[in-house]
Amino acid sequence: MSSFKEKLLNCRPFIVNNLVSIEDVIDTLISDGVLTTSVNEDIKTCQNDSNKIRKLLDFLVRKGSSEFDVFYSALNSTGNEHIALKLASDETTLSKNENAQSLQLVSKKKTIMDDKDKDILRKLRVQFVKNMIDVEGVVDILFSEDVIKDSHKSLIVRHLERSKQIRNLLDILPKRFNNSMSIFIKALEETDNIVLVNKIKELRHV
């Protein structure tokens, strides 16, 4: 079996659980000629993002290395660098240039958010949705600090309801990098979300 197919199969659970902005990934694959309109329509029949990702992976594993390369590039351009890094652990799959870029990302951002911080976001989710103010201000800070990408920002702010914006943000953050929580706390402090900051710090020191 080709190495890229092995990587897609081995990393499948991680990709399904951690890929964000699936629509942006699909749009990139369509524009680069990897996905046809009929395949896109088939993916759209899935009722949730996890199943869309599974169907996309089912399609990609039947394709060649050139399609995998486009998928890898799409991950890096849609805020899914954490998945690109996972796939890049197999040096035979990628070009030397792509591996060099991946190593730079590893040294800069290390790993995705640790489990304790993910658990804190989960426990405080209801309080965030009810009490967070100036969501766009928080998003702007996270964007300026490279915690979220332009595709993430667009996904969040396209909703008019504050609660939906917050839920989208909370869905994205756990899939970002290890220093994301510290920058998120800073963003909350700068937007006067002090009560939420205190709750996070309290749980972090338990």
Automatic annotation (TrEMBL):
<dbReference type="GO" id="GO:0002020">
    <property type="term" value="F:protease binding"/>
</dbReference>
<dbReference type="InterPro" id="IPR037939">
    <property type="entry name" value="CRADD"/>
</dbReference>
<feature type="domain" description="CARD">
    <location>
        <begin position="113"/>
        <end position="192"/>
    </location>
</feature>
<feature type="domain" description="CARD">
    <location>
        <begin position="1"/>
        <end position="90"/>
    </location>
</feature>
<protein>
    <recommendedName>
        <fullName>CARD domain-containing protein</fullName>
    </recommendedName>
</protein>
<dbReference type="InterPro" id="IPR001315">
    <property type="entry name" value="CARD"/>
</dbReference>
<dbReference type="GO" id="GO:0042981">
    <property type="term" value="P:regulation of apoptotic process"/>
</dbReference>
<dbReference type="InterPro" id="IPR011029">
    <property type="entry name" value="DEATH-like_dom_sf"/>
</dbReference>
<dbReference type="GO" id="GO:0070513">
    <property type="term" value="F:death domain binding"/>
</dbReference>
<dbReference type="Pfam" id="PF00619">
    <property type="entry name" value="CARD"/>
</dbReference>
